Amino acid sequence: MTSSTPDDDTAETRAARLILALREQGVTDMKVLGALEKTPREMFTPDLFKERSWEDSALPIACGQTISQPYIVGLMSQALTLDRRSRVLEIGTGSGYQTAILSRMARLVYTVERYRTLLGEAEERFRKLGLTNVITKFGDGGIGWAEQAPFDRIMVTAAAPDEPKALLAQLKPDGVLVAPVGKGPVQQLIRYAGDGAGGFHKETLCEVRFVPLLDGVAREL
From the candidates 68, 86, 95, 103, which is the catalytic residue? Predict the structure, then answer.
């Protein structure tokens, strides 16, 4: 048995270790794992945390927000059951990391961010990665993007205090929405699957900790 040394502990080997760990935790969709492996997480983390980019942990970014734990990114992406025809709405662009993962599996990703600073930085990352199927919007994510609805899939990356009815209304009858829901510091990650007749089958996936979904756009200094 051999062990890695600092010299061969490259981003590629760190990514491989992370993917193995995610598989052991139940993220088994090969499309999701492939998207995670191909997306350089270090591009989305602040300089202070570059060395921790491939850890399976959430990390702080600007504006008091976070880049989600890779396991949660993988779990939520897997729960969406995406294919290359999917039109996806993402609420909360943040660093753009989750957006980039979605863009590698869907036809189009519409993403809304309430912090103009975060959105500008994410857009620059999308350009550098050549992601041409991402459409961005500075706005209130809680009200969705009605002009582009209905969507095949919706992902919410901030905790809705209650069932996100305004977003569910922008979902196709057989669509899927995944969101953390709850008012406290710990929320339930819930998958809503349309039954084709205006109702939804609800499944609780796990407990999570997300920043809250806030109304309006942020006022930045």
Answer: 68
Using CA atoms, how far residue 159 sits from 67, 91, 214, in Å, is: 14, 10, 9
User: Is 77 a catalytic site residue?
Assistant: no
CA dihedral 129, 135, 138, 141 (to 10 degrees): -110
Euclidean distance between CA atoms 57 and 2, whole angstroms:
26
Residue 70 main-chain phi, psi, to 5 deg? -55, -35
Orientation angle between helical segments 30-38 and 11-25, nearest 10 degrees = 150
**Span 87-138, pLDDT tens digits:** 999 999 999 999 999 999 999 999 999 999 999 999 999 999 999 999 999 9
How far is C-alpha 128 from the chain's CA centre?
Answer: 19
What does the pLDDT look like over 56-96, one tens digit per residue? 999 999 999 999 999 999 999 999 999 999 999 999 999 99
What is the DSSP pairing of strand 151-156 with strand 187-194? unpaired
Domains of the chain: 30-208 (3.40.50.150)
Q: Is the dihedral of CA 44, 47, 48, 51 positive or negative?
A: positive
